[in-house]
Amino acid sequence: MTRREQQELIDKGLLLPLMEEFYTIQGEGYHKGTAAYFVRIGGCDVGCHWCDVKESWLAELHPPTETSKIVKNAINYSDTIVVTGGEPLTWDMGPLTEQLKAKGVQTHIETSGAYKLTGTWDWICLSPKKMKGPTEEIYAQADELKCIIYNNDDFKFAEDQAMKVNANCILYLQPEWSKRDKMMPKIVDYVMANPKWKVSLQTHKYLNIP
Questions:
Q1: For a Cys staple, 92 with which of 13, 164, 183, 187, CB 3.0–4.6 Å?
Q2: How many independent structural domains does the chain possess?
Q3: Is 128 labelled a binding residue?
Q4: Which residues take part in binding [4Fe-4S] cluster (predicted)?
């Protein structure tokens, strides 16, 4: 396959830069505590300085992988597939989710929403970032809004984002891991004063699992 042919398949979403895939327990948000198969797609230019998977940023580091192969691996483990990154919406998610849905599995995505929403999803976790905000279309479709709290200013950012999502969207505040001891008491106080919000924790890190 020539480089041009490969790029055409990537542009069509038939090849994706696969960083890793693994079966584990969902650690965050609404589905925490449930088993799921995670597909981590490389490539992200949002650039969160506190990102704990910076190795996902450069798509070139991760092998272009056939979506059919990703699907074949995933359905052996779980009927819930979580696509994450990096920023998975950097790429066309249509072919991947079309094949997954044809196998009868649930499709979840974790995204900053910085790019056009592609694919068919049973659950959309929107985790917006200040550096590159979401597209307007995704606010209406998000099932949960997960705002990362790194400092006090992030509470205002979270409220601004909450005003844009649909009325049924579940609202979460989650401490950035390195700041959890400092920010967790503030998050607890905030949620108690503003009960439309819920607390989300990275429980997988406490459990010492992927």
A1: 13
A2: 1
A3: yes
A4: 44, 48, 51
